[in-house]
């Protein structure tokens, strides 16, 4: 028998589309088969001191599954992700993705990323990327998570 049972919903816990000047801090964003945070067409975003665990695994198309802790999709400028704890993510802890988009001035700093399929992934097709900084992050056991 189980003394502690958690159920996941297939949602994006924090979804920002065409938003700017947003700070999200000191939250536990855990237990979704979708995503913890997605920014689509955002600028001047700060994510700080977040805990994101047990994220992803949702069926997308056929055998393809998805779910990242933090994903910046398409256009994104001036974002900071720092001092976050990211654990047990099916896909990527941190991700930049999109099609024919521009992403610039994004910093990932002082995060603990453990037991994710990928600590960081980048899929930006046909776009322009500049000044993506990944510094002083601790990445442990990539590929050894639950997914």
Q: Could you characterize what this model shows?
A:
The strands form two sheets. Strands 1, 2, 3, 4, 7, 8, 9, 10, 11 and 12 form a ten-stranded parallel β-sheet that branches. The protein has no helices and twelve strands. The model has no long low-confidence stretch (mean pLDDT 94). The chain has one domain (16-140). The protein is globular and about 50 Å long. With 147 residues, it is mostly beta strands.
- Please identify the structural class as seen in this structure: mainly beta
Summarize model confidence as the mean pLDDT: 94
Radius of gyration: 15 Å
Strand content: over 45%
Strand tally:
12
Please tell me what the overall shape is.
Answer: globular
**H and E order:** EEEEEEEEEEEE
Helical content (DSSP H or I, runs of 4+): under 10%
Straight-line N-to-C gap: 23 Å
Short description:
The chain has 147 residues and is mainly beta.
List the helices and strands and how they pair.
Blueprint: E1 12-17, E2 20-25, E3 35-48, E4 51-55, E5 58-61, E6 64-66, E7 70-82, E8 85-99, E9 102-109, E10 112-125, E11 128-135, E12 138-140
Key traits:
two-stranded antiparallel ribbon, 147 residues, mainly beta, ten-stranded parallel β-sheet
């Amino acid at each position: 028998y189980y003394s502690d049972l958690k159920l996941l919903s297939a949602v994006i816990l924090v979804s920002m589309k065409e938003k700017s000047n947003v700070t999200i801090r000191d939250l536990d964003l855990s237990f979704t088969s979708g995503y913890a945070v997605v920014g689509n067409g955002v600028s001047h975003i700060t994510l700080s001191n977040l805990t994101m665990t047990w994220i992803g695994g949702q069926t997308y198309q056929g055998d393809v599954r998805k779910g990242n802790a933090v994903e910046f999709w398409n256009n994104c400028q001036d974002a900071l992700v720092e001092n976050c704890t990211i654990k047990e993510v099916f896909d990527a802890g941190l991700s930049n993705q999109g099609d024919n988009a521009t992403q610039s001035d994004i910093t990932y700093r002082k995060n603990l990323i453990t037991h994710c399929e990928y600590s960081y992934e980048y899929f930006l097709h046909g776009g322009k990327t500049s000044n993506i900084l990944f510094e002083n992050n601790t990445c442990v056991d990539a590929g050894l998570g639950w997914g």
